[in-house]
Amino acid sequence: MAKAKIMAIDDEPDIIRLLEKIITRAGYKFVGFTSPKEFLEQYEQEKPDLILLDIMMPEMDGWEVYKEIRKINPKQRVAPLTALELPETLKKGVKELGASDYITKPFDPEELIEKIRKILGE
Fold first, then answer.
1. 120 in helix, strand or coil?
2. Which residues pair with 103 in a beta bridge?
3. Does residue 81 contact residue 65 with C-beta atoms inside 8 Å?
4. At 63, phi and psi to the nearest 5?
5. Which among 10, 63, 66, 95 would be 20 to 30 A from 36, CA to CA?
C-alpha cells in the first residue's frame, strides 16, 4: 500500500523543513508551502490525504484557507497547526468545522506522527 501524502502550509520555512524531515522519515510523502496562495494553486493537483494547516499566517489566515479547501473538497482531512493553546470553544469549533484534529506547536515528533496515523486511520 502506498504511503499517504501530507501537505503542510506554514508561513515559517523552518517549520516546513522540520515537518518534512519528521513526516518523510515516517515514510509519508510530503509537500510543504509557506504561501497559502501557492498551496491553493497546487492543492487540486496534489490530492493530499491530509493537510496540516497553520492558523496564524500574515498573507491569509488558516481559517480562510480552510474555507477554500472545503469549497473544493468538503471531505478533505485537515489538522490545524497552532502555537496557541486552544480554549474549549475553539476545540469545539475545530470539530464542528470538520477538522480531523489539531496540532499545537511546538510539537513532539513522535506525537505528531501518532496524530497523523490516528487521523489517517492507520
1. helix
2. 81
3. no
4. -65, -35
5. 95
At residue 50, the pLDDT reads 95
32 neighbors 7 (Cβ within 8 angstroms): yes
Nearest residue to 61 (alpha-carbon basis) of 91, 86, 36, 94: 36
Give the CA dihedral 36, 39, 43, 45, nearest 10 degrees: 160
Domain ranges of the chain: 5-120
**Which of 29-33, 55-59, 111-115 shows the highest mean pLDDT?**
29-33
Strand ranges (DSSP E) for the chain? Answer: 5-9, 29-33, 50-54, 78-82, 103-104
What is the band of 93 on the pLDDT scale with cuts at 50, 70, 90?
low
* Max Cα distance, the chain (Å): 38
5-120: CATH architecture:
3-Layer(aba) Sandwich (3.40)
